[in-house]
């Protein structure tokens, strides 16, 4: 399956409306939803946040110029929320999955879909 197919499947779940897959280092985009672009600074802050979340805790989580309230940040997952929408970001062995869920979707539903894909990618070496 292509990387784009994974992004398309996340969106097809209807629990996520935009998604992207980046390299673990955050230096390349493997696949993304149309128009779902993060700046190099935003991506760098996210990638750094997996190992040291102090910057995200102090400044917030940013994606596409929008500031999200940081709910959780550890070496595997980063979750952010702004009103009724939010972000689920999960790091695997070689990739970073980033997904946005819209208003009307329960955060746990979106989290489950993204975390399951991450578990699968880890199980196959990614």
Automatic annotation (TrEMBL):
PROSITE patterns: PROFILIN. The keyword Iron-sulfur does not apply. Pfam families: Profilin. It is found in: Cytoplasm, Cytoskeleton. It comes from the Eukaryota. GO terms for molecular function: actin monomer binding; phosphatidylinositol-4,5-bisphosphate binding; proline-rich region binding; protein sequestering activity. Keywords: Actin-binding, Cytoplasm, Cytoskeleton. One of its GO terms (biological process) is mitotic actomyosin contractile ring assembly. GO terms for cellular component: cell cortex; cytoskeleton; cytosol. InterPro entries: PFN (IPR048278), PFN_euk (IPR005455), PFN_sf (IPR036140), Profilin_CS (IPR027310). Occurs in many kinds of cells as a complex with monomeric actin in a 1:1 ratio. Binds to actin and affects the structure of the cytoskeleton. At high concentrations, profilin prevents the polymerization of actin, whereas it enhances it at low concentrations. Belongs to the profilin family. This is Profilin. It comes from Lipomyces starkeyi NRRL Y-11557.
């Amino acid at each position: 399956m292509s990387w784009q197919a994974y992004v398309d499947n996340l969106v097809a779940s209807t629990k996520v409306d935009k998604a992207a897959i980046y390299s673990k280092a955050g230096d390349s985009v493997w696949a993304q939803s149309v128009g779902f672009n993060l700046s190099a600074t935003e991506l760098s802050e996210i990638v750094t946040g997996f190992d040291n979340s102090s910057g995200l805790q102090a400044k917030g989580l940013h994606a596409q110029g929008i500031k999200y309230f940081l709910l959780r940040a550890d070496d595997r997952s980063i979750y952010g929320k702004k009103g009724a929408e939010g972000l689920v970001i999960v790091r695997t062995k070689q990739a970073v999955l980033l997904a946005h869920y819209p208003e009307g979707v329960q955060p746990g539903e979106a989290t489950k879909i993204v975390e399951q894909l991450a578990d699968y990618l880890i199980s196959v070496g990614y």
